[in-house]
Amino acid sequence: MRGFLATYLRELLILKNRFFRFILSLSVNPALYIIAFGIGLGKNININGKSYLEFLIPGLIAATTMMQAFAINVEINISRFYLKLFEEFQAAPISSIGYALGEVFSGVTRAFLATFVILFIAFLAKVKINLNLYFFITVFFNAFIFASLGLASAMFIKSHADQALITNFIITPMMFLGGTFFPTKNLPIFIRPIIETLPLTLVSHTLRSIALNNTFMFSNLLILFILSLLCFFIAVYSVQRSKD
Fold first, then answer.
1. Please, where are the H alpha helices in the chain?
2. Buried-most residue among 127, 182, 203, 237 (CB within 10 A)?
3. Residue 53 lies in domain
4. CB 189: neighbour CB atoms within 10 A?
5. Is 50 helix (H, G, I), strand (E, B) or coil?
């Protein structure tokens, strides 16, 4: 527990020192997507009886929280390759689980800040969506999964170039194809089954069901919970492997 708190509080201190810049940077992309796609392109588009802007917001939250949670790999890489802080964690009496949990929760924290920024922008745009506990639980699972994967990728890669490949070939395509900007049923039949199995697609569908219809399937949360455990196990293994 002490290892988790030490790691997590360190990340919070870093975030505190650049909090306003971080919030400002979080605001830019969602605002542009809402203006360009939601207001500009989708002004006269309705999907299942809802405005396109109402359709867009839950998917945008899913994609943005994924990106922000996964982005902890950048900070970890800087700590490993340049600041050599990971060696200090290795020498300190901190377990792999404690270190991994601290880093993952820092990604979850960033993801929730992104969520609140998007919800505030949606409020300003007068978008009405339903919010409840299950909505935020889904956001938590999404952030936990991708923060765990971000930590694992940071431990396995050997350079920043390798990290860019992961982002460009996995994370970015998932953002645009995982039900963020359009219904996945519009995809070609040969690729749709693959897209439907992606975690982000499941999160987008779940958040959209809650936000627009105030309904969801408990089985979706169970699947996300299992994925969270699996991805965290991979993250812990990657940290332990880097120590050995």
1. 2-17, 19-33, 52-70, 72-78, 85-91, 96-124, 133-156, 160-166, 172-177, 192-196, 199-208, 218-243
2. 203
3. 2-243
4. 7
5. strand
Q: Which residues contact 232 (CB under 8 A, 6 or more apart)?
A: 100, 101, 104, 144, 148
pLDDT over threshold 70, residue 210:
yes
Cα–Cα distance for residue pair 2/13, rounded to 1 Å: 16
Nearest to 225 by CA among 192, 191, 202: 202
Determine the Cα–Cα distance for residues 22 and 107; give it in Å rounded to an integer: 13
Domain count, the chain: 1
Neighbours of 237 (CB within 10 A): 15
Q: What token pair was written down for 150?
A: 């971000």
Q: What is the pLDDT of residue 222?
A: 94
Query: Given a cut of 90, is residue 112 above it in pLDDT?
Result: yes
